[in-house]
C-alpha cells in the first residue's frame, strides 16, 4: 500500500499523462499505479518480480513494477495495459489476445501482453523462438500457453498491417 510522505509529491508520466503522487519514494511503482492512479492492468502476483503479472513498460522496456520504487520511474514514460488501447479500441497486441481467446483466468495476461508489446516495439517481426524466449519468464498457471503463443504471433501480424496502413507511424 502506498504510504504518504511529508516530502514533496512525486511527478510521474503514465500513459501519456502527467501524474502526481504523495507516495514515499521507495513505494513500489505497482502500488502507486493501482492504488493512487486506479490503473488495474498491472496485477500483484508474487511481489518478487518473478511472475510477470505486474509488468509495465518503462520507456518501452518491459519492467516488473512490484520491485521498482516509484522514484525510479520519475523522468520516464510509464505505460500500463490501459495505455495500449481502450475497450472500444484495443491496441493491436490487445486485439490479438482477444481474437485468440488467450485467457482462462486472465491473471497473467497483463504481463503477457506487455511483454509481447515490448518485444514488438523493438522487433516488429520476431520469430516464434524469440517470442517463446521473451515470454519464458512470465508465468501462467492455467496453461493457456498455446493460445498465448498464437496471440503473440497474431499481434506481430496485426502491428505489421497497422504499420503498413499508417506508413510506418505508430
Radius of gyration: 16 Å
Shape: globular
Proportion of residues in β-strands: 5-15%
Instruction: Give the structural class.
Output: alpha+beta
Distance between the termini: 35 Å
Short description, anyone?
The chain is α+β, with helices and mostly antiparallel strands and 170 residues long. It is built from six helices and five strands. A hairpin with a 2-residue loop joins strand 1 (10-14) and strand 2.
Give me the secondary-structure topology.
Elements: E1 10-14, E2 17-21, H1 29-36, E3 55-58, E4 61-64, H2 70-73, E5 77-79, H3 92-99, H4 109-122, H5 128-135, H6 145-165
Parallel strand pairs: 1-5
Antiparallel strand pairs: 1-2, 3-4, 3-5
Describe the structure.
The structure is a single chain. The chain has 170 residues and is an alpha+beta fold. The protein has 6 helices and 5 strands, in the order E-E-H-E-E-H-E-H-H-H-H. The protein has helices at 29-36, 70-73, 92-99, 109-122, 128-135, 145-165, and strands at residues 10-14, 17-21, 55-58, 61-64, 77-79. It has a 5-stranded mixed β-sheet with strand order 2-1-5-3-4, with helices on both faces. A hairpin with a 2-residue loop joins strand 3 (55-58) and strand 4 (61-64). The protein is globular and about 45 Å long. The termini are far apart.
Amino acid at each position: 500500500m502506498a504510504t504518504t510522505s511529508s516530502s514533496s509529491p512525486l511527478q510521474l508520466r503514465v500513459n501519456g499523462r502527467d501524474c502526481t503522487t504523495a507516495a514515499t519514494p521507495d513505494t513500489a511503482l505497482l502500488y502507486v499505479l493501482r492504488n493512487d492512479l486506479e490503473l488495474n492492468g498491472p496485477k500483484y502476483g508474487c511481489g518478487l518480480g518473478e511472475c510477470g503479472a505486474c509488468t509495465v513498460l518503462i520507456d518501452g522496456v518491459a519492467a516488473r513494477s512490484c520491485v521498482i520504487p516509484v522514484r525510479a520511474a520519475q523522468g520516464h514514460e510509464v505505460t500500463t495495459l490501459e495505455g495500449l488501447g481502450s475497450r472500444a479500441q484495443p491496441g493491436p497486441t490487445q486485439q490479438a489476445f482477444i481474437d485468440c481467446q488467450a485467457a482462462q483466468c486472465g491473471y497473467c495476461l497483463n504481463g503477457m501482453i506487455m511483454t509481447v508489446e515490448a518485444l514488438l516495439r523493438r522487433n516488429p517481426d520476431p520469430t516464434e523462438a524469440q517470442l517463446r524466449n521473451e515470454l519464458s519468464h512470465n508465468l501462467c498457471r492455467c496453461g493457456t500457453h498455446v493460445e498465448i503463443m498464437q496471440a503473440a504471433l497474431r499481434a506481430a501480424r496485426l502491428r505489421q498491417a497497422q504499420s503498413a496502413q499508417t506508413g510506418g507511424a505508430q
